[in-house]
Design brief:
heterodimer, A: alpha/beta, Rossmann fold, Alpha-Beta Plaits, 6-stranded mixed β-sheet, 4-stranded antiparallel β-sheet, 10 helices, elongated, B: mainly alpha, 78% helix
Chain lengths: 302, 259
């Protein structure tokens, strides 16, 4: 079922170029959707509009087929840099947030305890937030976003600022949460997107370049690729192979090269034969397929 | 509990935790008590520290109680206003800067409720400080100099509080539209100073000005009677406060809270 639908969403600041240039997409209920894009693509602006913090310049946002005046009751939002009242304790802030979301005090307290347990902050609940680490703040941020059981959880770069351990923790939590709530999160760590999302949206320069389920997008844009690692650079040969008809793209990165092929069967034999004939010193010769990262780079550079 | 009480309670708790609820009233009490004490002991002070030649006869008229209290209020008008503006300058701007304002506004809270809770918090600390300080001053004045009728005290403090409410409302306004704490304080104090100066220079044309509240306060203290222009000034001041509050809410709505 369609949970949220954005139609012709535009946001421009002043007279400068629009940050978001009329995007259309929808989010299915129960999915985990990742919003990808380079810095400045308009991801945060889009998320802010969806969360009801920022009014769109034009366009509309439908929620469950209706057009609510205020989206905020349905949405839990975690900003990129969550901030708190540092003089409050973790629990106090959650109760405060819950009450602002129109829960009564008892309900808010109960839900806070539940969430503190869930995000692993039970032991720190009475400590001042000022003394929390970055990872703890992120987890508290997640808890405050979930406090009123939102229909849609929006997370802006939930893991970018965390160390590997904190990142792991938050990702595991997101995996749990996605069983109950629809999630939309932005990231530029493609690995994370591949790991937990069902659907992806790739934004570039204020527009949506690609959208769809992760599987179908990968299927559609997947290309066979040949990765060769040399012991010493072999630029001359690599330049010459571009003339083969089965080669569509050659990317050289130091000693490593990735070659996108149109015809894998024919291509790999010809190239391998070439390498043997010329006695090129290779370390690795691998056949694989384009990843989300390759697709991302292609979209952004196009 | 409604969102309003939650937000207001948060304001009060914050002032308790950072001791504002303590030190601002203390400043007002000190300012209020120093005046009658120093008026009373002035001859002794001069005698001891003045370095006057032996045999000088000092004829100092002891000020009346009302005069002492007028001086107290003029101290409040200078130092008191400064303290209030400095303590309130970050009320919205700091929350915007840290991003915590956005954390509040992503919950379904109306923008006017947020601003009004801030305003109510500021009024609470301002009025509590003014009343406590002024009552302390009145007590010492009646102890050392003479008792001023409580009725006059009450009337004068009510009128004077309208001026202070105007001051903190302006502070809230500038704190909402600007970001740096220093600039908020500077602009607020500049505007208040400008209003006061223009009012006293062009008294004839400025009968409606909020700054005339301080003059009306003095009048009530000295004569117990209100000038006929009070009503006009009162209505205009309340109207300005309401308009500034509405403008604050409207401008706050347009701010991008997550920059």
């Amino acid at each position: 079922m369609e949970l949220l639908k954005a139609s012709d969403l535009v946001k421009s600041f002043g007279n400068t170029n629009a940050a978001v240039k009329g995007i259309n997409f929808h989010i299915e209920e129960g999915r985990c959707v990742s919003l990808l894009g380079p810095n400045g693509a308009g991801k945060t602006t889009t998320l802010k509009m969806l969360s009801g913090l920022l009014a769109p310049t034009s366009g509309s946002i439908n929620f469950k087929g209706e057009k609510p005046k205020d989206l905020r009751p349905y949405i839990g939002y975690l900003p990129q840099y969550p901030a708190f009242y540092n003089w409050m304790s973790g629990k106090e802030f959650l109760v405060f947030a819950g009450q602002l979301a129109k829960m009564n005090r008892k309900e808010a307290e109960k839900r806070s305890e539940e969430l503190l347990e869930r995000v692993g902050l039970t032991n720190a609940k009475k400590r001042k937030i000022g003394g929390y680490s970055g990872g703890m703040k992120q987890r508290l941020g997640l808890a405050q976003a979930l406090i009123h059981r939102p229909k849609l959880l929006i997370l802006d770069e939930p893991v970018s600022a965390l160390d590997p351990l904190g990142r792991r923790e938050v990702l595991d939590m997101m995996r749990e949460i996605k069983e109950e709530t629809t999630i939309l999160f932005s990231t530029h760590v493609l690995h994370d997107a591949e790991e937990i999302s069902d659907d992806i949206l790739i934004m570039h320069a204020g527009e949506i370049a690609i959208s769809g389920s992760l599987g179908s997008v990968m299927e559609e844009y997947r290309q066979p690729i040949l990765q060769i690692e040399f012991e010493s650079p072999a630029v001359d040969w690599l330049k010459s192979i571009a003339s083969y008809s089965f080669v569509s793209e050659v990317n050289i990165q130091g000693n490593k090269t990735s070659i996108v092929l149109k015809d894998m069967v024919n291509g790999k034999q010809t190239l391998l034969k070439d390498i043997v004939d010329r006695k090129l010193p290779i370390r690795k010769f691998e056949i694989s397929q384009t990843t989300l990262e390759d697709l991302f780079v292609k979209v952004v550079k196009a | 509990m409604t969102q309003w009480t939650v937000l207001y309670q948060k304001e009060i708790t914050e002032m308790v935790r950072n001791y504002k609820i303590l030190w601002i009233p203390i400043v007002f009490i000190l300012l209020g008590v120093m005046q009658p004490v120093s008026s009373y002991y002035m001859p002794e002070i001069l005698d001891t520290f003045g370095g006057l030649p032996e045999g000088t006869i000092l004829e100092m008229p002891t000020p009346t109680g009302a005069e002492v209290l007028m001086n107290v209020l003029s101290n409040y008008g200078m130092l008191g206003v400064l303290i209030l503006v400095l303590s309130a300058m970050g009320v919205v701007s700091e929350e915007r800067q840290s991003g915590v304002a956005a954390m509040v506004m992503i919950k379904p809270v109306s923008y006017s409720l947020y601003i009004l809770s801030k305003w109510a918090g500021l009024l609470t600390i301002t009025l509590v400080s003014l009343f406590i300080g002024y009552v302390a001053s009145w007590y010492y004045t009646s102890l050392l100099i003479e008792t001023v009728a409580f009725e006059r005290i009450f009337q004068s403090v009510v009128i004077y509080s309208i001026w202070l409410v105007f001051v903190v409302t302006l502070t809230l306004f500038f704190s909402t539209i600007m970001k740096g704490n220093g600039s908020v304080a500077f602009v607020t104090i500049f505007v208040i100073f400008a209003i006061s100066t223009v009012t006293s220079l062009l008294g004839k044309y400025m009968k409606w000005s909020p700054a005339t509240m301080t003059e009306h306060t003095g009048q009530v203290l000295l004569s117990g009677k209100l000038d006929s222009s009070f009503l006009l000034a009162f209505i205009i001041t309340i109207a300005i406060i309401i308009v500034v509050l509405i403008a604050t809410v409207q401008l706050f709505k347009r701010k991008d809270l997550l920059e």
